[in-house]
Amino acid sequence: VQLVESGGGLVQPGGSLRLSCAASGFPFSSYTMRWYRQAPGKERELVATISSSGGTTNYADPVKGRSTISRDNAKNTVYLQMNSLKPADTAVYYCYTKVGWDASWGQGTQVTVSS
Fold this sequence. Notes:
Elements: E1 2-6, E2 9-11, E3 17-24, E4 33-38, E5 45-50, E6 57-59, E7 67-72, E8 77-82, E9 91-99, E10 102-105, E11 109-113
Parallel strand pairs: 2-11
Antiparallel strand pairs: 1-3, 3-8, 4-5, 4-9, 5-6, 7-8, 9-10, 9-11
């Protein structure tokens, strides 16, 4: 299993970013995918979840209404669109899946929200 995130960067408060996670090494369309984030000095937290078909999504309260998780099973890619970004959204964002007993994480992509 390989998960490779991209799309992070420095953005001003109120701005938007779209994160991508390219997956390989497993039947992507069969598995739930998740985005987590970890801010400095804080524990890693779940941000959003999408079912294998993309038909069901869930969001953590801090990002609900500002973020959209989606997936393209033809491209083996999951996305996280984040709008109205706040400094509190500053974190390393990780893509995650669990295939059988094996949990897999990407290397993370840094999102910094600052003026």
